[in-house]
Amino acid sequence: MSEDDDTSIAADLAVIGFGKGAKTLAATLGRKGKRVVMIEQSAQMYGGTCINIGCVPTKSLVYQAEQLSERNPAAYRRAVENELALTAKLRADNFAMLDGIESVSVLTGRAELVDPHTVKVTLVDGGGTVVVSAEHLVVSTGSEPRIPDVPGLADSGVMVTSTDLLATPELPRRLVVLGGGYVGLEFAAMYAAYGSEVTVLERHSEILGQEDDDVAACARDLLRENGVTVVTDAEVRDVGTDGDAPATVTYQRHGALESVYADVILAAAGRRPVTDGLGLDAAGIDLTDAGAVAVDDHLRTSQPHVFAMGDVNGGPQFTYVSLDDYRIVLDQLAGSGTRSTTDRRAVPYTLFMTPPLARVGLTERDARAAGRRVRVAALPVASMATVPRARIVDEARGMMKVVVDADDDVILGAALLSYDSHEVINVVSLAMRHGITATQLRDEIYTHPSMTEAFNQLLGALA
To answer: Which of 212, 45, 55 is closest to 140 using CA atoms?
Structure first.
């Protein structure tokens, strides 16, 4: 059922937000015959952040940029059209997935908790209200971009979020990115690939400060090669107008004021959990100091029958972590109740620049700071004769690095800045989770030619 004509619904489970973990939980319990109500405030967000304004559209644009023979606004416009068509199809597929389950209702409207078991849903387009009473509730409202408090930014007329930019068919001539984190750098690399003049303003002394210095430096060199100007130690002061561009971004660097022209300014200063207007106070649901819904190791809130999944609970902001949240909550509702967030180990992540940077585990810096005796191998991809795959695809830039415990040969972490690293990192993560040693991974048999066989040479270089 797509819209329920009743003014009230009694349900086993009410879910607020159509994200990865939430929709999977709703579908799983719905197929088991449970009465489930999925509440999503916008028909443009069926399926959640990933397929609509996150992973899928951004990676679509990255992939299409990598296939370009020439960079120009027309190519970008075609890429955006393709990306929007893809997300529209996935959105429809996700709606149909739940709508086709007899015991599941999808309500499109704004949800507000009025007590610990009751949600008032104000339907879109003046459709009235529906009151949902449920035995269990899940809050899965995700996160939203954090807008920096910079004078003149909000009123500049050219500030956008990542969501806005993905739906903009006109390629910015000059794009200024505020923030050198994962979102900022991914968009910077992507738009430079289409031909924008991109400047990243990062307030810290280096981008990717959580990475080892050699990895961060390699990433910065690659961004520069790809046409991105990275300015570090840049404290943005204000946004105004002065010159031949719609906006001028003024920043202080090393005691001096400097400026850069912008046709579009991307606010990429992180994301914050979406909790405003949900009525969490009325339901007795606590928040953390950072504004996330407070949860225990089983993702239960301060109301034990209410769970929080995905970005809104303050955990790692990854779709695959949201999917693991689903496994934990499902285990609470229909399993042994033993699975928890403490079971997570060696969770990888990837920055989809070209080539991508994939990471898992400890950096060398953090391992040494923790007092571990380590062996380290770090090799430029171009020097690895046993990895012809990189040359076959004409992408031999980047580096690979692995950190190993010197006492027991356990892999502590890896940074792969190379072609296909977003795939290869999963091999390292699997090895770390299941106690496969560096020597065992080194001596495995891998397909050829593949990027995975880099482990034969990389782990052989441990020192």
So the answer is: 45
Is residue 5's pLDDT more than 80? no
332 burial via Cβ count (<10 Å: 0-12, 13-18, 19+):
buried
Q: Is 179 annotated as a binding residue?
A: yes
Right CATH for 349-461 from 1.10.357.10, 3.30.390.30, 3.30.470.20, 3.40.50.1000: 3.30.390.30
List residues with catalytic annotation: 448
The SS3 call for residue 29 is helix
Q: Are strands 411-417 and 235-240 parallel, antiparallel or unpaired?
A: unpaired
Contact 393, 459 (CB under 8 A): no
Helix (H, G, I), strand (E, B) or coil at 240: strand
List phi, psi (to 5°) of 104.
Answer: -110, 135
Q: Is 206 helix (H, G, I), strand (E, B) or coil?
A: coil
Q: Is the dihedral of CA 104, 126, 84, 247 positive or negative?
A: negative
Please report which helix (H) or strand (E) contains residue 37, including its range: strand 36-40
Answer yes or no: is pLDDT of 241 > 90. Answer: no
127, 144 contact by CB (below 8 A): no
What is residue 18's predicted lDDT score, i.e. its pLDDT?
Answer: 95
d(CA 127, CA 137): 23
Whether residue 29 contacts residue 152, with contact meaning beta carbons closer than 8 Å, is answered with no
Tell me whether residue 186 is annotated as binding: yes
Tens digit of each residue's pLDDT (9 = 90 or more) over 278-305: 999 999 999 999 999 999 999 999 999 9
What is the C-alpha separation between 197 and 191, in angstroms, rounded?
8
pTM of the complete model: 0.91
Residue 311 annotated as lining a ligand binding site = yes
pLDDT of 213: 95
**The two domains 8-144+272-343 and 159-269 share their CATH topology (first three levels equal):** yes
Q: Which CATH class is domain 159-269?
A: alpha beta
Residue labelled with tokens 């370009």: 68
pLDDT in tens, 31-90: 999 999 999 999 999 999 888 888 999 999 999 999 988 888 999 999 999 999 999 999
- Exposure on the CB side of residue 315, measured as CA atoms within 13 A: 23
Q: What is the CATH number of domain 8-144+272-343?
A: 3.50.50.60
Strands (DSSP E) found in 118-275: 118-123, 129-139, 143-145, 159-160, 174-178, 197-201, 228-231, 235-240, 247-253, 256-262, 264-267, 271-273
Is 243 annotated to bind a ligand? Reply is no
Geometric angle at alpha carbon 211, from 205 and 213, rounded to 5°: 60
Q: What is the average per-residue pLDDT within 97-103?
A: 95
Domain definitions of the chain by residue range: 8-144+272-343, 159-269, 349-461
